[in-house]
Amino acid sequence: MSSPTYAKTAASRSSDDAQTPVLLTPGPLTTSARVKEAMLRDWGSRDPAFVDLSHTVFERIRALAGGTEAAHVCVPLQGSGTFAVEAMLTTFVGAGERVLLLVNGAYGHRMADICRKSGRAVEIYEVAETDVHDAAEITRRLRADPKIGFVAMVHCETTSGLLNPLEEIASCVRAEGRWLLVDSMSGFGALPVDMSGLELAAMAASSNKCLQGVPGLGFVVCRKDLLEAARGRSPSVVLDLQAQAEALANGGQWRFTPPTHVIAALDAALAELEAEGGPPARLARYSRNLDTLLSGMADLGFYPALDPARQAPVIASFVEPHERWFAFPAFYEALRARGFAIYAGKMTGRGTFRVGVIGAIDPVTIDAFLLAAGEVVSEMKQKVIS
Ligand SMILES: *Cc1c(COP(=O)(O)O)cnc(C)c1O
Known about the structure:
Bound molecules: pyridoxal-5'-phosphate
CATH superfamily of the largest domain: Type I PLP-dependent aspartate aminotransferase-like (Major domain)
Helix content: 25-40%
Distance between the termini: 54 Å
Strand content: 15-25%
Structural class: alpha/beta
Order of helices and strands: EHHEHEHEHEEEHEEEHHHHEHEEEH
Radius of gyration: 21 Å
CATH topology of the largest domain: Aspartate Aminotransferase, domain 2
């Protein structure tokens, strides 16, 4: 198999995709030509060829998450990643049960909204967006409240780009005999997730982040025993993971129209992940992207909002310069005109913007971005002087 070609510079691409910027965002992100080409054929959703394709895609994802065939299943779900998070929380956490939510950013708050709206009682343990949770405090809260059956956390908090310590939290949750639910949306495919080793209850992710597929599909890898125990718990028809898994297990048919092209693209994306050397090789490439980005941005006078030790190689938040020349909309537009789409900030309390390092991009792409960013900075500073 040929190695994938990564997005280089705006100039080196064909006129056809001159309109298509390199997406330095947390997903949807830049995908390879092979992934896009996989969407050029139509599939009948009841056709055995599609049923086979769908089955093998989700078996590979189950294995990537460290799940075993005997104990785990990957349940796919139409929709964006949040659909999978909502399905995970409302399928596993029963009405009247309490879930401890570990919050240090917007995606943690979103889990709280989901629980409240669906009548799941929550206890929130929130720390600053630049901090991680204290294991001793988690243990203390679990001991104080035996009604808490589940703890839920975000792996990489995309709000800031912070990496939460999954292994440490999983071991303290299991030591108290409770179950951990993980939103690993922005990390799965690169950051390691070991369902078996960490004894996780469930992990939610989507097609369009580190797996480098296209958007339209979420999935939850979970324990079969807990899924069976959750039979009838979901208040929703479409978001009921147990019902979805049961239908797929009995004949491989989806209950409702599957996103056929998205699944075909994900099949190609998984083949690329395998050819690259799996999640460790992908993580290494993203880490090289991040290192290139952080050092180049520092040269331009942009500083990261997080302690580098807490930064995941997924997306970096930069503090907006408090100088007259800088305004995010103009910065964005000038970079966009040069073929790069960055991302607005989401941290509370201070102005930040984000630059993603995931997708079919490599350090050459980041160098091209840094060159463009350098030109934009000079131009913007010049405008203030003249
Ligand atoms: C992207 C993301 C989601 C899902 O967002 P959607 O817009 O619904 O795809 C959930 N959690 C985290 C941490 C994310 O980065």
